[in-house]
Structure formats: C-alpha cells, structure tokens
Amino acid sequence: MSNGNTAPLYQRDILGPSYEQATLNFPDDYEGQVTATLVRKKADQTTSKAVLYIHGFIDYFFQTEMAEQFNQHGFDFYALDLRKYGRSILPHQKYYNVREIAEYDAEITEALNIIGAEGHDAILLSGHSTGGLTTTLYAAHHPEHPLIKALWVNSPFYDFNMNPIKKKLGIPNLSRVGKVCPDLKFPSELNKWYVPSLHKNLHGEWDFNLDWKPQSYPLVRLSFVRAIFEAQKEIHQGVSLTVPALVMHSDQSKNPKKWHQYAQSSDVILDVKHIDKYARKIKGDVTIAKIKNGLHDLVLSEKSVRQNVYLRLFEWLEIKGL
C-alpha cells in the first residue's frame, strides 16, 4: 500500500492542465499488481473542505462540470478511479473485476488520508450507482472517521433492477455459484440505450473514453453479482450513519427497447422506487431528493435538470454546515 507519510506524486491528468492525477499502489490480489488513481482539481482559493467522488460500475471519473461546481462552491475536488477501472486498469487485469465491495476500502482509506494530509478537515464522501452503494457502506463502517462530515449519493445501487421472481430466486443462486466460479458470466440486462444517451458522438453531449465506459456490456461476471448481492443485503437490513446523507435519484425509471426520449429523461439502469425504499431504511439524518427528468447519473442529465441537482445539493450542504 502507498505510504501515508509520503506525499503522492501528481502529474497532469488526461482532463487538462487544472486536473492532476496520482497513482496509488496496493498489495497484489488474485490477479496480481493493483493500483488505483486519485484525480484532483483544486479550487482557486485555499480551502479546508474537499469532496471525494467514487464512480459507478463500467465507469470512471470524467464529469468535469461536477468538479468545477464543487470548486466554485469552495471545495477542492478529488475523485478515485478504482482498481481495474479507467485510468487504473493494468494489462494483466480484467475490467471491473471484484469479489467483494470491501476490496475498494483500501483506496478510499488511502485517498481520505491523502486529502487530510493536504490540509482538509471536512470531506463530503460521494458516490454514483455502485459507488453510491460502496460509499454508503464505507460511511456506515467508519462511524468515527475524523474527516467524513457528510455523504452524497447519486442514484445508489441499493437493489438489482430485474423481474422480482428472477431477482428473488436467481440472484442468490448466481451469488452462490459466483463464490466458486467467479469468472463465469451472465447476461447483464443493462439497458443498451444508456451510454448512447450520453456520448456526444451518439445521442448525448458528453465526451468520454468508450473503452473505459463502453457503449454496451452484455455479460457480467458472477463475482460482481456476488459482491453486489452481499453488499446490498446489509443495506436492506438498514445501516446506521453518523453523518448527514443526501440520497438523490430520478423521478422515474424506464426501460426503452428502442431509442426513445425516455433515455434522456429517466433512469434506465435502476428502479428509483428501490432507491427510495432502501434509503428510507438507513438510520440517521437522511434526506431523499427526487430529481425530475434525471438520468441515472444525475450530473449528466439535460442542463436545466443538472442545474437543479447542484442547486439542491449545495443548499443541503449549506444547511448541514459544510
């Protein structure tokens, strides 16, 4: 693991001169060498506040507008590309390969240590989708963390979005198989119009690496199914948080089979009713915000929608004293 007493070596990031990245090294796992990547964008004025953002499944950090919004509101911005994602993928690794969500604790802990060492005493922990599940559990498992002051999750992956009978019977069985045969693959059932709704060369307005966030991902490893299933069981039982949490999600979920404007005005990945249901089971100071016409990644929604996201986020942070 990286030495917490040694400052990370930053270099220019792919997003441009105001973004820097540092490689974090960790002990080998079942595939060999492991790294993660910490990206930062500092605010114009010195601040003791920061945000640490964790991306979702089949994803990486590229949401520059979000970073700029945090900078403008007095936060230094940090994001992790987790092991085996985006900037962190190594030639010998399988993309997104994980056997339990707790594997990511190492890079989250290291990133928090670095952010603290860089002059910050108040951190907003943030995550999108699988990152929202991961950060919720991290905050619950570290109730006395001296730096984490609040949690913001954007469409957290609190439950599988699939036929209820298939979910009740199939997911537990797949999880059991995944423990023994982690590399077996199963149809992902992800809506094929999500990434096309985002990318500027397809139907969207955003530019991102289609190798790191591909247009389609038809098969998923059973190791991932198992990791998510085990993590969600804890959420479903009702975790406790010691910091205020803001859970945001779209006002509607759709599953278009062909291209439709729903792909640009709804969550086509998760069922927002599941997010709301399990957010209400979290014990503590939890605010649930429903975003009209929001996409699965709310900060990639149409301009007026994401302006509403930021308005409500920063109003909430001000109320909570961050």
Automatic annotation (TrEMBL):
Check the record and name the SUPFAM superfamilies matching this protein: alpha/beta-Hydrolases
- The region annotated as signal peptide is none
Superkingdom assignment: Bacteria
Q: Which UniProt keywords apply?
A: Hydrolase
Q: Which Pfam families match?
A: Hydrolase_4 (PF12146)
The GO terms this record gives for MF are: hydrolase activity
* Protein name per its UniProtKB record: Alpha/beta hydrolase
